[in-house]
């Protein structure tokens, strides 16, 4: 049996900025599979913090696709767009550490964009400027310099230094949107999420979210598992905007829900060629994995 939290609560948290594709189905296979193995529950969260790109029609389509796939969640779905008052209240608690920032991405890239595979680090240039909190300025929270260590349930021991990776975290952007890093960290604590399951592309976010959760008052962080991503033939990650391997397109082409789940699981290595392709086979592979 995988080394799962004794009280397992996890979540499926798509952004309603497009339709579900096979990459989401891979995440769903891990989320619902491990929840079933650990006797846990799955909560659904619509991560619509980006007000400019999120659309209600995409949120409705996600619900419809999950029902078609046979993936049931616990309770009612939550939306980040409903939590502005909670985010604002916690921002006030953080106020001694928060400052306004007028920097654009272009201004931060003093020596050009970072090398491929590296992220742009905020250099703290607005820390001591005492800018007023007004429209058109972002808000950042000061991060202490230190190392965050955690055991990824799939990738093993990890060590990250958030202040060196990304600098002070942006928690509200210049358009007034609450950022992903801030919103999910608070959401996961408020929803008692004990296991965060997501793709490897978000591994670098983990140390900073653990550090931020500590600042918010969460004494014990969630456990984390980062699984492999699916890629197109040209090596690019599957994208909602490119309509890659969309669940709706596969459904319209005549595939059953079981076939779509099996297709995603095989592509992610959760099923071997000789496996039957049913949900039970996915559970057996997860149960036998070194988690």
Topology at a glance:
Layout (H helix, E strand, L loop, with lengths): L8 E4 L9 H16 L3 E6 L9 H14 L8 E2 L4 H11 L3 E4 L3 H4 L29 E4 L6 E5 L3 E5 L1 H4 L3 E4 L7 H11 L4 E5 L6 H11 L6 E5 L19 H6 L4 H11 L11 H10 L3
Parallel strand pairs: 1-2, 2-3, 9-10
Antiparallel strand pairs: 4-5, 5-8, 6-7
Helix pairs in contact: 1-9, 1-10, 6-7
Question: Could you please describe the fold and organization of this structure?
Answer:
With about 290 residues, this protein is an alpha/beta fold. The protein has a domain at about 10-95 and about 150-155 and about 180-290: Rossmann fold (3-Layer(aba) Sandwich). It has helices at about 20-35, 55-70, 85-95, 105-110, 160-165, 180-190, 205-215, 245-250, 255-265, 280-290; strands at about 10, 40-45, 80, 100, 140, 150, 155-160, 170, 195-200, 225. The strands form four sheets. Strands 1-2-3 form a three-stranded parallel beta sheet. The radius of gyration is 20 Å and the shape is globular. The mean pLDDT is about 90.
Rg, Å, rounded? 20 Å
**Overall CATH class of one domain:** Alpha Beta
Q: Any idea of the CATH topology of one domain?
A: Rossmann fold
Structural class: alpha/beta
Q: What is the helix content?
A: 25-40%
CATH superfamily of one domain: HUPs
Work out the helix count.
10
How much of the sequence is in beta strands? 15-25%
Strand order of the largest sheet: 1-2-3
The ordered H/E elements are EHEHEHEHEEEHEHEHEHHH
Described by the principal axes of the CA atoms, the overall outline is globular
Assigned CATH architecture of one domain: 3-Layer(aba) Sandwich
Secondary structure: number of strands: 10
Q: Report the biggest beta sheet as strand number plus sense, adding barrel if it closes.
A: 3 strands, parallel
Estimate the mean pLDDT confidence.
Answer: 91
User: Low-confidence runs (pLDDT<50, min 5 residues)?
Assistant: none
